[in-house]
Design a protein that fits this description.
By secondary structure, the chain is an all-beta fold. It contains no helices and 17 strands.
Length: about 180
């Protein structure tokens, strides 16, 4: 199966559910689905000020800073416990539930972030970094590879090999749970 190139210039603009910002959808399933219907979504967004995150019931979230000085996420989980995550540039993702009341505080200026959301119990995603290599997918996977600087991306649905650019790339492996 051949990979599909997803140039950054064609990523769909999508307002945040809470109306406080705008994300660029890189890839999603089903295509163009609302937050209430999406099964999985890979996106990027710029955050210019401290803000609350949207309430996204049923979605598991992975959030990673790709440019800027980082953020602190303060999440109140299902039991009422506060969980703090600090995200620095190109560190592994912060993972949290879409239902958790989450507040984002910028550490020092605006950031650009990478987001992966999966419908809990239906899909799961794994993020990794690769550079100038090939990654293989089996018949039950979708691979989405994203250049974090340009946001150009490549998608491979099902079995095949995806050859990555020489620069560092974020690889998202999505499969049914």
């Amino acid at each position: 199966m051949a990979a599909i190139h997803l140039p950054a210039s064609q990523h769909r603009a999508q307002p945040w559910k809470n109306g406080l910002g705008l994300s660029r959808t890189i890839a999603d399933f089903p295509a163009g689905a609302s937050f209430d219907a999406v099964k999985w979504q890979v996106s990027a967004t710029e955050i210019g000020a401290d803000c609350p995150f949207s309430d996204l019931p049923g979605l598991d979230r992975q959030f990673m800073v790709i440019d800027g000085n980082g953020v602190e996420l303060s999440c109140i989980d299902d039991s009422g416990k506060t969980r703090l995550f600090q995200g620095k540039t190109m560190q592994g993702p912060c993972t949290f539930s879409g239902e958790w009341k989450t507040q984002c505080r910028l550490l020092s200026g605006p950031v650009k972030v990478f987001n992966v959301m999966t419908r809990r119990g239906r899909f799961a995603a794994e993020l990794s970094f690769a550079e100038g290599a090939a990654v293989d997918a089996d018949s039950r996977q979708t691979l989405v590879a994203v250049d974090p600087r340009s946001l150009d991306a490549w998608r491979l649905d099902g079995p095949g090999r995806l050859v990555l650019p020489a620069s560092a790339t974020i690889v998202v492996r999505i499969r049914e749970a």
